[in-house]
Amino acid sequence: MDTLPGDAPVEDWALSRLLVTASRLVEHDIAGQLRPHDLTHAGFGVLALVHHAPLSQRQIASATRVEEQTISRTVDRLERLDMVRRERDPADRRRFLITATPRGRATFAQATRHDLAEDALRDLPEAETLRIALATLIRRLGAEGYVPGHEPSRPGPDQAGRAGRPTRSSTKSGAGTGNGRAPRGSTD
Predict the structure, then answer these.
(1) Domain coordinates of the chain in residue numbers?
(2) Could you report the per-residue pLDDT of 17-64, keeping only the tens digit for each?
(3) Is the dihedral of CA 68, 71, 76, 79 positive or negative?
(4) Element containing residue 168 per DSSP (H, E)
(5) With contact defined as beta carbons under 8 Å apart, do 167 and 144 qualify?
(6) Is the peptide bond before 148 cis (omega within 30 degrees of 0)?
(7) Chain-centre distance for alpha carbon 71
(8) Packed helices 41-50 and 57-64: angle between N→C axes, nearest 10 degrees
(9) pTM to 2 decimals?
(10) How is the chain split among helix, strand and coil, in percent rounded to 5?
(11) Fold of 10-173
């Protein structure tokens, strides 16, 4: 990547600038991967959260850090594409759970089968150190359970060293699940 005239070399940038720039480059590549599947970043985020288990719109909005109205529009679009469906929550008939359809799960699997960021770092000995550092940053900033979730083919981040440490969800409610989602049976 070339810097603009008068700009510092990339290696001298502040960490925040490095993270934002890397994130934007990865997002751009991901957008290209999602486009053939009729997915947006927002739709991908919803599928990432519900491809294993249904969640309420409130839980999805909380995990993605957006308003419920925004998630509602995203879910409407995914529903029209037959990637999710709304189902009454058997534990609370007043609310709906968002469930991935077989098409939604297959689309998510297709969209996550190739990771361009992994490819870019494949031959670097520091790649695993970077992964651990980013996971640590995410945990410390309180974003566990945040989109995009775990891909079906990759296990979640190592849970070592986290026991007994309160998560953002547990400190807010007093008894969280540690995954950013409300405990089963909680009302939305």
Answers:
(1) 10-173
(2) 998 998 898 888 888 888 998 899 899 999 999 998 999 999 999 888
(3) negative
(4) helix 168-173
(5) yes
(6) yes
(7) 14
(8) 120
(9) 0.65
(10) 50, 10, 40
(11) Arc Repressor Mutant, subunit A (1.10.10)
